[in-house]
Amino acid sequence: MTRPGKIPARSLILLAIASxxxxxxxxxxxxxxxxxxPPAQALQLLLDGNQRFVAGxxxxxxxxxxxxxxxxxxxxxxxxxxxCSDSRTPPEVIFDRGLGDIFTVRVxxxxxxxxxxxxxxxxxxxxxxxxxxxxxxxxxxxxxxxxEGHEGTADQDVGPMLSELRPAxxxxxxxxxxxxxxxxxxxxxxxMKNLESSTELAAMVKAGDLKIVGGIYDLDTGTIEMxxx
Length: 229
Description:
- By secondary structure, the chain is an alpha/beta fold.
- The protein has one domain (about 35-225): Beta-carbonic Anhydrase, Chain A.
- It is built from nine helices and five strands; from the N terminus they run αααβαβαβααααββ.
- The chain has helices spanning about 10-30, 40-55, 65-70, 90-95, 115-125, 140-150, 160-170, 180-195, 200-205; strands at about 80-85, 100-105, 130-135, 210-215, 225.
- It has a five-stranded mixed beta sheet with strand order 2-1-3-4-5.
- Strand 4 and strand 5 form a beta hairpin.
- It is globular, with a radius of gyration of 21 Å.
- The N and C termini lie far apart (about 45 Å).
């Protein structure tokens, strides 16, 4: 029986663990590079640039010799974009940005394996990025291949890229509409969740210091549809 006013040993242990967890989270955040700019402002810069690109009125900012000389001394991008390797989806073009503006990671299917996550982690903790966009695109060749090959056995060796896309194909299977477009959408959402829960980025996301967003690029119109998890 616990005496009045006395905290049980189990509760003390749980409080100690919680305190350590909070302290560890604060330590991680304190050790990172100062933000280049707030997440909302960075995201708006991306979306404004895309609007200029769609309208055919790009400004091509930060592409002068002076800018080249400036960023040669060090980089401080305001956003990171995880995009597909597809030649039609270069982030610097579709967001109308220039040298040193976007930390870009591109891989077929915009999947997030360990190397991708650590690359994005570097942009956040060492370069000051505070918004990461996961950018899928319509008619993605990697997703098409994953959808077409999904009926194989679960242990079939389909290679690391298609293996990364299989969860999105499985999640979207049976949804109404086009199976490829559904898988593209689910892949972006799943990658966002993976980044948010990753060991590298979870503390900053939980603290509200890092924002992970997702979008789908339309190859025909150039527009980007922003997604919600």
